[in-house]
Amino acid sequence: MRDSIWEVMSHGYGTMWVLLALSVISVGVAVERTIAQYQFTKRAQALAETVGRCLRRGALSEARSACERSPSPLADVFLVGYERHGRVRGELVSTATHRERQRVNGELRSRLWILGTIGALAPFIGLAGTVLGIMVALDGFEGAATVKFDEVSGPISDALIATAAGIVVAIESVVFYNFFSQRSAQIAVELRLLTDEFLEDLGEAPEAEQKDGKDAKKEGGGGRSEAA
Q: Is 103 within a domain?
């Protein structure tokens, strides 16, 4: 390279440092969202499988305990269903549960606004650095009768580095934003399916629990200790 990294960063009169900071923030948000969404999916699937098995054999209290112990946000959705189950009509249980699911969906998109904002602002920040660089470069030739092209091309090309950097940072942020937005939408669909399955199992659970109790009495073994 013609210039060292420090000389390159000096172009744009501070805007290059701003763009570097925005790039680091963008990557940081992307890493955080990757970890958060991966953990969300893994924990949600594990919890749904555990709760589904418990409900299908009528063990409501065991299923609820699994939700209370789980770190998954999906547990909050299931617990809303448990709190209203048996106390209100089935459609009200479904409405309350899906309302909580929508809240969890909103958390999946947290911090994505940062990526969108960086993607929108970065090109303008780079352009501002270029404009400042060109203004200063041309000001140096004020009063000169003639100016050679090679005397102007160098300062202008240096100033354009800020614009190029702004575009690169914007592309980076927009790609991250679109990826995680699409991923959030996919997880939201999966979350809805898991919630619907939970509501179906919860609605059938009392019958399963009653059936298990009758079978246990016939066998002389008593009811299940974990059934609610």
A: yes
